[in-house]
Write a structure and sequence with these properties.
This protein has eight helices and 14 strands. By secondary structure, it is an alpha/beta fold. Helix 1 crosses helix 6, helix 6 runs parallel beside helix 7 and helix 7 packs parallel to helix 8.
């Protein structure tokens, strides 16, 4: 499937503002990230509405469908079509018939917010769904590769460089090279977009690792484990539930991943712990 093309005007708005800086006030034009409702519709049946940055919505629909367990395999997604209106978008997803009937049985309506991935979920069982272990495979990542990716991350965050308000989820090769990055006001959405982008490109989700600008919450680890990602690093803190899930599912979880520091919370065997004091990092 080709990469979606969304005009920059759909992701950024400009406003005249008063900026106070250094003891003085001046009128400037400020760039602000757009946010709009995105409806997820499965074979003409509405599933929910999320607020999202209006870019890479095909990726978002594919990633959400997989990471939320609405299908088990990418080939069960038969097609995605994004329809635009002036104030909203609709991602229409066609899935294999057995998956559609199962989806109807567990159907839920949810209204997502940028800070919450669980609004409208009907029961704890829906949230804490059982996940298979990711196994012992996946890349072995050196500390140098981890910190090299952390250092390069900002250069890939083009929308955040303009607006300062969006999260990023990056796909990183074992050697630390950032291969794909997706941005969104919602951290869950950014990760779903990244997962969808890699799946649409035919990539093996166990062949690289994920770097997040956000905290490592339960839902972020769950989405990775559900899609076979074995290694997750986050710039911010983890939650206790995320640590427990990572340990149970076999996912390597690294948090507080910043310049010359990181903390490994689960499955340290995938992170080669040589010194990162090299000043070239």
């Amino acid at each position: 499937m080709p990469e979606p093309v969304v005009p920059a005007a759909r992701t950024i708005a400009e406003f005249e503002v008063e900026r106070w800086q250094g003891g003085g006030m001046r009128q400037v034009r400020d760039q602000v990230a757009e946010e709009l409702p995105v409806a997820l519709v499965y074979d003409d049946v509405p599933h929910g509405v999320m607020l999202a940055t209006p870019a890479d919505l095909e990726d978002f629909a594919v990633g959400f469908t997989l990471s939320e367990g609405l299908v088990e395999r990418p080939e069960e997604i038969r097609g995605v079509e994004v329809r635009w209106s002036a104030e909203a978008a609709e991602a229409r997803v066609s899935v294999a018939w057995p998956r559609f009937t199962a989806l109807l049985e567990r159907r839920r309506r949810l209204t997502g917010r940028t800070g919450c991935g669980l609004c409208g979920v009907e029961s704890p069982e829906t949230v804490l769904r059982p996940l298979k272990s990711v196994g012992s495979g996946g890349p072995r990542v050196s500390a140098a590769a981890l910190h090299g990716a952390i250092g390069a991350l900002a250069d890939h965050q083009r929308l955040n460089a303009l607006t300062g308000s969006v999260h990023a989820a990056a796909w990183v090769a074992a050697d630390g090279g950032i291969e794909t990055l997706r941005e969104d006001l919602g951290r869950h959405n950014a990760l779903d977009k990244l997962i969808g982008a890699r799946v649409r490109a035919g990539a093996d989700l166990a062949a690289g690792w994920v770097l997040l600008t956000s905290r490592a919450s339960f839902e972020m680890v769950q989405k990775c484990a559900a899609t076979g990602v074995t290694f997750v690093a986050a710039l911010s803190a983890p939650t206790a539930l995320a640590v427990r899930l990572a340990r149970e599912s076999g996912v390597t979880l690294v948090a507080f991943a910043r310049e010359r520091q990181h903390v490994v919370y689960a499955h340290p065997e995938r992170l080669l712990s040589e010194s990162v004091d090299n000043p070239t990092l």
